Amino acid sequence: MAAPELDALRLLVLVGELGSIGQAAAILGMAQPSASKRLSTLERRLGLVLFDRTRRGSALTPDGRVIVGRARRVLAELDGLLDGAQALRTRHEAGLRVAASMTLAEHLVPGWIGELNRANPGLRLGLEVANSDQVAGLARAGKVDLGFVESPGAPAGLTSLKVAVDHLVVVVSGAHPWARRRRPLTPAELASTPLIVREPGSGTRETVDAALRDAGAGPVKPLLELGSASAVRNAVVAGAGPAVISALDVTDRELVPVAVEGVDFGRALRAVWPEGRRLAGPAAELLALAVRRDLDPCPTS
């Protein structure tokens, strides 16, 4: 059996309420002959007689009353669906939920957001700062419209686009013996030295571990685990020990970069969003700004 058209169900409900095909047709902006034809088609599809047609009007049959009751529920559900879709559309048009890992949130995302806000003065935007694993989790759960991460690989279950490249660098305080070192560190020396590191799940921590494993030296040995890039930077300046941080964070003259031989500390900075979802509105605009404004754009999966 072919499903009835929604317009025919609306017409049926109105005729049941008004007792007149002509009045119902006028309300829906239909010609009466067209309305009569739609109702006859509906009866044929359902295999039921829905109206008793007399000179005084059209009255529902017992079967017609049952079908009208069910039609009302169908139309109410449809109205709820349309209202919900409109509410979601309004929310996406009026606001944007973004999450970013520490390095991106401190150095890159504010500039992209500033440009987006200048182009969209009424836009309400929320930025949540977390580590890369947490940002990926928020994106998978649909709790943010767009995320930015710095993990060494593309996170599973998400669509991703590389928006920039970053490089990590070993840093020490000026009082550390490595500050006067003339030859580069070996991967084994770095891996065997306790370092000030970010917490597990941080993109920086994962990148360092992956780079050292690729160099055959194993993961880092934590000296201190800290929850932000600024905390790591401050601990190095205070002389607590060496660390590997983003080159974007090397803004203090008290930090001394140290070369490492044979280790690639480059990493991609990626935008991520739920797999299969098409970005639209402010989220798509923000992604376009990130790709256009920064380094080496290259799509990944």
What does it look like?
It is a single chain. The chain is of the alpha/beta class and 301 residues long. It has two domains: 87 residues, Arc Repressor Mutant, subunit A, CATH 1.10.10.10; 201 residues, 3-Layer(aba) Sandwich (D-Maltodextrin-Binding Protein, domain 2), CATH 3.40.190. 45% of the residues lie in helices and 24% in strands. Strands 3, 4, 5, 6, 9, 10, 11 and 12 form an eight-stranded mixed beta sheet that branches. A two-stranded antiparallel ribbon has the order 1-2. Helix 9 links the parallel strand 7 and strand 8. Helix 1 crosses helix 4. The C terminus is likely disordered. InterPro entries: LysR_HTH_N (IPR000847), LysR_subst-bd (IPR005119), WH-like_DNA-bd_sf (IPR036388), WH_DNA-bd_sf (IPR036390). This is LysR family transcriptional regulator. It comes from Amycolatopsis speibonae. Belongs to the LysR transcriptional regulatory family.
SSE topology sketch:
Layout: H1 6-18, H2 21-28, H3 32-46, E1 51-54, E2 57-60, H4 62-94, E3 95-100, H5 102-107, H6 109-119, E4 124-129, H7 132-140, E5 146-149, E6 158-173, H8 187-192, E7 194-198, H9 203-214, E8 221-226, H10 229-237, E9 243-246, E10 255-258, E11 266-274, H11 281-293, E12 298-300
Parallel strand pairs: 3-4, 3-5, 7-8
Antiparallel strand pairs: 1-2, 5-11, 6-9, 6-10, 6-11, 6-12
